[in-house]
Amino acid sequence: MSANLLLGLSPILIVSLGALLLMMAEALSKLRNEARESPSSSLAMGSAVVLASGGVASLALWLQGPDNLMEARAALAPWLLIDRFSLFFFVILTLGAFLTVLLAGGYLPEHKLDRGEFYPLVLLSTAGAMALAAAGDLLTMFIGLEVMSLGVYAMVAFRRGSPRSVEAAMKYFLLGSFAAALLLYGGALLYGATGKTDFSSISFQLAHTGYANPTNLQQLAWENSTPLMVIGLILVVIGLAFKISAVPFHMWTPDAYEGAPTPATTFMAGAVKAGAFAMMIRVLMMAFGDVRSASWGSGWPPVLAALAVATMTVGNLIAGRQESVKRMLAYSSITHAGYMLVGVVAMAGTARAEANGAVLFYTLIYTISTVGAFGALILCGSRGAEAVSYEDLAGLGKRNPAVALALSLFIFSLAGIPPTAGFFAKLYLFKAAVSGDYIVLTVIALINTVIGAYYYLRVLVFMYFREPLPGAPIAKPMKSGHVAIALVFAALLVLALGILPSKTLQAALSSTISG
Amino acid sequence: MSYLGPASFYICSLLAVSGALGTVLSRNAIRSAMCLLATIVGIAGLYVALSAQLLAAVQLIVYAGAVVVLFVFVIMMIGPSGSPTRDNRTFKTRAAGAGLFAAATLVALGLVWKAAALLNLFDMSTLAKKTLKGAPSFPHVFDPPRPDLGSVEGLGRALFGEGMVAFELSGLLLLVAIVGVMAIARTRQPASTKEPGALPLAPTDASSTEEPTS
């Protein structure tokens, strides 16, 4: 039994044991001359190797098929569910973290933040996000969420000397703890209503309430537990909506994203959001996926649809007014959360499997594109000459065509312009929403995509068609092999998935939640 | 309630509720802290009544022993002048708060009333689980507390037996917290490599937060 358990857990184990090993290695390598050699160069590569092997392990388990791992799954259930859904998200999470550590390997030494703790934090946070994506029980869900969040709070505060970074971390920490407390409270109410903490039992309790001839006791017990259930679900959804920064729980996002060191921002926009989405889908589909709770008339879909519309629209409208590119990308990540919520709503409809595949595919593409965009922004600036506002980027297309090309590619993908992968991600998502008969929602999402093109293309206009004002500060691109590797890798993925999306889409379509 | 009887339940609940009211209503911070202590002791008593002895002991040690003492330390350090004595709330906010509280109380009373009716209508002893093995019962009725579950041994068995995955994950949680504290608290910045915008740990004025960072 134990060997099976280790096999099922191997992606999480590789990442967390790798973090321990790297910490030991850093602590014991005191012989190294710290003034000459940066700890980042070796640690970034080490973490990248660990995360890559975690991703490969997940991929191998996915290819082998969880049906061949029945014993491992039984040993871990219901705490962690190793199904194709979790394994697909493991790949997304390790990929996002892999790119993040490479970006950090260039960013931290450049900005004199070169302390080794950043890498174990990324690795442990990723392990938490993986546990969150696979959690099948309210307890592991909460622990996974906290492991992920605590690491990110520390990463945001990593630039301790800067008041802005500390302010961002404090804001994120306080609001995040509040959201986690709401989530925990919601979980406690759900336990009180159903007597169970694992999602499949909660769903069993929910599904067996419509008796043909309920006895008085059954009727009364159900009526008594309904308010608890509803309030519990609302609180859990609020807690998760905070993590995916859905409007109106998005207030912390721009400040935290802007104040954090850019690799930390990258991790928040990519892996943290993906992990929280995995959890949201699993809670809604597994625990509250029964006919009553998931129907438009009597369940959560209208609430989530309202969240989606607000998130897309507000995120877009504010993003268009930003003068800082980093803040614009923060609001753009809010908008993308809105699009993904459209997909989650569509999962409640008739085209459930299609919507599931579309959301997973979208999450993968969004993670690569947004990590790439932030990474290109890192490469655009150097210490003392960072790329902050649109003006800083003026004329970059002439000064440094390679960096400008990379940034444009990821911006295209975020905007959803072919031949980049972002186009197909949006196409499949909207197609799934239409086949689930959510026409109005799709139309709103389409309008928002068009609005979004304005501020994405503005970046390109500044880079290629504007000259910097005389005397104005301009961004000087930095030189870093780590960042270059990450960007080339992400760019290849964006192009490959844009030209040949079918295989990956098939994989996403077959990555359903198995009960 | 299994072996201590209803009397202890009522005493502990009274202690907890009156302590909570005292915490909220008292204007003196020290008195509030002492009322919080009463609440915590009352809740610990309720845990014992539910045969969760270890939880009761932990509650006393951690909350009464550490948290309340910390509160008192802080209150003593700030001194009586630290707390504002004037109440700036308008009549409207008071009325809104009171209305919300009354509504919540009414809903809670209604639920309790219904639950009481349920208990009177049906003999709970006949409802003891008669489900098939392995199949969850519905609608669920909580088991009566088992005396062996709340002991150190019972908790240990639960933690290292069925709940081992969650237990190991909590180890990861503690580890990431330690590393995070190290990352934030450890400063190894010689003066030469200090950031231009970097400030020492002294309180900073609001205007300096406007410095641009990438």
Strand content of chain B: under 5%
Kindly report the CATH topology of the domain at 1-80 and 139-146 in chain B: Four Helix Bundle (Hemerythrin (Met), subunit A)
| Number of strand segments of chain A | 0
Q: Would you list the SSEs of chain B in sequence order as H and E?
A: HHHHHH
State the name of the first-level CATH class of the domain at 1-80 and 139-146 in chain B: Mainly Alpha
| Sheet/helix structural class of chain A | mainly alpha
* Distance linking N and C termini of chain B: 60 Å
CATH superfamily of the domain at 1-80 and 139-146 in chain B: NADH-ubiquinone/plastoquinone oxidoreductase chain 6, subunit NuoJ
Portion of residues within helices of chain A = over 70%
Oligomer: heterodimer
Low-confidence stretches of chain B: 124-136, 190-214
Considering residues with a beta carbon less than 8 A from a beta carbon on another chain, report the largest interface and each chain's count.
A-B, 68 and 49 residues
Instruction: Calculate Rg of chain A over CA atoms.
Output: 22 Å
Q: What is the 3D shape of chain A?
A: globular
Average pLDDT for all residues of chain B: 76
Q: Average pLDDT of chain A, to the nearest integer? A: 88
- How many helices of chain B in DSSP terms? 6
What is the level-2 CATH architecture name of the domain at 1-80 and 139-146 in chain B? Up-down Bundle
Structural overview:
The complex is a heterodimer of chains A (515) and B (214). Chain A is globular, with a radius of gyration of 22 Å. Chain A has 20 helices and no strands. Helices cover 75% and strands 0% of the residues of chain A. Chain A has 515 residues and is mostly helical. Chain A has one domain (2-23, 40-509). In chain B, helix 1 (5-25) runs antiparallel to helix 2. Chain B has 214 residues and is mainly α. Chain B is 61% helix and 0% strand. The radius of gyration of chain B is 25 Å and the shape is extended. Chain B has six helices and no strands. Among the domains of chain B are: 1-80 and 139-146, Four Helix Bundle (Hemerythrin (Met), subunit A); 151-187. The interface between A and B is large, with 68 and 49 residues.
